[in-house]
Amino acid sequence: MPSTLVDTLIRRFCLATRFPSPVHSANTHTTKAPFSIMTTKLVRFLIYSFAFLSAWLLALNEIIPVPEAFAEFIPALPLWVIVSFGAYSLASIGWSLITFGDCPEAHAELLKEIAQARDELRRAKITIDD
After folding, report:
1. Cα separation, 18 vs 11, whole angstroms
2. What domain of life does the native source organism fall in (predicted)?
């Protein structure tokens, strides 16, 4: 059962155009993944962008009634979306950098592999700069 509107639209598109649904595959022996996982992020982005742009154009051309208090903000809405997306992106990257965890086990393992590689190179009579 589709969980989102996007899943429903894509499933109906596949049925209407007789494209094979990505959910049904005869060659897989694993459990079938939900349709929302099979949808690529590009397809979702394009569908959401189309829906937003359609609604924005309808509101901009006054086909959809908009309260007068919001009518002056409609032309700047795409710019506001882009700036908000940029702010969210910067905040999520900053948060990821702040909460980046140290991995002492991985550090020790990497140093061990470097020492092992140096020993193998020395045994092969290859000089390395320390």
Report:
1. 10
2. Eukaryota
Provide the sign of the torsion angle of the four alpha carbons 63, 64, 67, 72, taken in this order: negative
pLDDT one-digit tens code per residue, 32-74: 445 555 578 888 889 999 999 999 999 999 999 999 888 899 9
Answer for the pair 128, 122: CB distance below 8 angstroms, yes or no: yes
Residues counted in the chain: 130
Type of residue numbered 69:
A
Burial class (CB in 10 A: 0-12, 13-18, 19+), 115: exposed
The pTM (predicted TM-score) of the whole model is 0.49
Q: Rg (Cα) of the chain, in Å, rounded?
A: 26
pLDDT averaged over every residue in the chain: 80
Token pair, residue 128, equals: 């390395």
